[in-house]
Structure formats: C-alpha cells, structure tokens
Write a structure and sequence with these properties.
Elements (H helix, E strand, L loop, with lengths): L1 E5 L1 H7 L3 E4 L1 H5 L7 H11 L1 H8 L5 E4 L2 E3 L10 E5 L6
Helix pairs in contact: 3-4
Amino acid sequence: MIKVLFFASLRDKLGVSELAVSIDQLTAISHETSVEVLVKHLSSQNAQWGDILNSDASLLIAINQTMVESNTVIHDGDEVALFPPVTGG
C-alpha cells in the first residue's frame, strides 16, 4: 500500500488528510508507478478531485519526506505527500 497525505488548502479542498492506495491500482493504469500515475488515479475516482488535483500543475510532492518531481517512481510502502504551492508575503 502507498500512504498518500494531503496538506494545507489541498487537504481542505479534498476533505481528506490521508488515504491508502494499492500499488495494484496504479499498475492497472500504467506499468510505471510514478506520482503522475497516482494523481491520474486519484483524479479518476472523483470528478471534483480531478478538478482540484489538475487545476494546479505546480503541486509540491514528497516521497518518504524527500521532495521529488512528478515523474518519480513510487514503490509499495512509500509515503507520498502532496502540497499546494507555497505562497505568502
């Protein structure tokens, strides 16, 4: 299982702070299990989630507490954290 964590406004918009995704659910979409495939899977589960996750191409991503790019491969047992872009002033 992959543990997916959502933070800040992303968590508020989706209405969930974490969920678990089976690696098998990702390999059913593509033989490559990248963060992009994970986001595609999550987006396909709920139209509203798709709008939210795809509305901002600059999502910040961490796998096992290390910042990564969206094409990074995910492995069974990984923790994937998704953050909205950092803003402030």
